[in-house]
Amino acid sequence: MELFSLKGKTAIVTGALGLIGKKHCEALATAGANVVVADMDGKMAQHFAQQLGKGHMGIGINVTSKESLLDGAALVYERYGSVDILVNNAAINDMFENPALAKDLSAFENYPLDAFQKSLDVNVTGVFLCSQVFGTKMAEQGSGSIINIASTYGVVGPDQSIYRNACGEQTFFKSPAYPVTKGAVINFTRFLAAYWGHKGVRVNTLSPGGVENSQDEFFVQSYSAKTLLGRMAKATDYQGALVFLASEASAYMTGANLIVDGGWTAI
């Protein structure tokens, strides 16, 4: 089990205050890492870091701003001296405030350009900048593990039928931004793995499936029916995979996409 130990390692998780982000932090902390909780709200990040226990810290960062990342990195390196694990988890997924307009706004024919650009900025450019800031230091120290969080929708196209309610009405469409950006993340992983492999930096993707989180019952049922395990994921279902990719247990693994989706993409 020592292969899975992260004792003495420092890990930074972006988008750390989200549903899965918090579970990522908890898993890394349990495995022994010093965890940097990184999110837009610095005070909330600090509060959550305190909940994790001693040895952790919270910082406020904007992943789309290199200046913000450099400022955050300075604080991290001042305290810990190095970063060994980077989890590029920060991302946005379309939310439509007015349900009555969700169907029309999410349809590809009407999808707003500014919404598409915002997703590119956070989901792709954010991964690029975080990797540049923290990964460069890893390459200089000759070791590190970068884990990019993608999605099953980076591997397969969205099944729009699961967003139809019990009456067969399309409530909204899975918009193009999320699949496009998550597909980009998967190939960016391959680029970095090839670029920094000789420097001892491993780069892998973790592609999770959908997490049950108070969605409409029709959606939960439709989604679950497409998985081989017959259910949506729990927020904790990705913790083992994350620790595996962060630790020496995956020492000979780089450039890979680890899909954990209950069998969604298997058939």
TrEMBL record:
Keywords noted in UniProt: Oxidoreductase
A GO MF label: oxidoreductase activity, acting on the CH-OH group of donors, NAD or NADP as acceptor
PROSITE patterns: ADH_SHORT
Family: Belongs to the short-chain dehydrogenases/reductases (SDR) family.
Listed name of the protein: SDR family oxidoreductase
Organism: Mucilaginibacter psychrotolerans
Upper classification of the organism: Bacteria, Pseudomonadati, Bacteroidota, Sphingobacteriia, Sphingobacteriales
